[in-house]
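User: Quick sanity check before I run a bigger batch. Here is a single chain. Can you write out its predicted 3D structure?
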Amino acid sequence: MTIIDNPLFTNAFDISIWKNESKINELKSNLTLIENTIKKYLEGITEDFPGLTDHSIAHSRMLWNYANIIVGEKNNFINPLEAFVLHTVLLVHDAGMCYSVLNNQSEVEKDPLYTDFIVKNGSSEEAKEEALFFTIRQRHGDFALRIATDTLREGEYLISDIPLREELGLIVGKIAKSHTCNINYIEREFGPKYTNPNFPTDWSIDCQKLSFLLRTADAAHLDNLRTPKTNRMISEISGVSKEHWTFQKKLGFPQLSTDSLLMYSTNKPFTSEEQKAWWFCYEALQVLDKELKNANEYFDVNNLEGFTARGVKSINDSLELGKKYIRTSGWNSINTQIKVSNPIHIASELGGVKLYGNINIALRELIQNSLDAINLHRVHTGQNNINVGEIKLSIKKLDKNSI
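Assistant: Done. Predicted structure follows.
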């Protein structure tokens, strides 16, 4: 197994800290086998979808560096068994983007997402390729779960060691899937720490912690190591992929500020012709900022040791971000998105009687909105149960003219 040179990784497998040399060597030797198995499949992602940025094993390993800066200087934040699970998760979390891993292209083409896309956009070869990518993009978390437990294209298993696969395969798969789901999935799917009876009792696996570490590290990996193409090659790419390649080609590895925020910088400023790419970068940093805040909120609420990194520097000031960090040239990154500072006033002016005229219509609209919210909650949380959600309606007469 390739040694990953950062404190979080080396500390997790440090025999002087965790003792049990034979168990640590067992885990590391199995990780070598897992890497050898998945490497060729990860390389197939680029073959299936050339427009994607790097999803190879280099991306998986690099996530340790991002996990390290996010966690910060904390001793024994993860134990050897958690490190085994996390590394396996990092290896498979995007493997579902390659339909050749499970050899399931025909299955994908029967997926309702695929068939609906074809109905809306036609059945040309280009539309079919777009439908295939769209469907796999949406389902790759589910495929990652299966890759951790099912046989792969050539008949092998990701985890060849049977006891380890039977004990940890589903855990690996669920954590890998979690990065594509709403954060409610994490609390719903993972309970207290799991202690494997075949390993030391202080090597319990905190699946929720590892899930948040995957989500934040993956969102943070935006640097130019993910863009091996030259600038000339990038100029020949079209659509959204070009904007992603353009901004990631400029970004370096972040630093941690004194106020515990990740600071990204660029090797070249964004020109006026690259404004669209800059805003794609800004959106990606907003996603990262939200993931870090969600993770630390979870740790704070549960009185657990959280991450050192708590957000992204200047994320709420796009102009400052463009001047100091994700630099612009010849234009200013002023966010013109409309923000409502007084929603109550807006609601009073645009809602209720002023909008509907008749109070009965307003009540009907509120009930319909409640139904829509419940249905959306069911979809996002995967709860296909008509008993989920309840609407309570009460009407009180205030005077003869109002209720």
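Strands lie at 255-256, 262-263.

User: Great, the batch can go ahead then.
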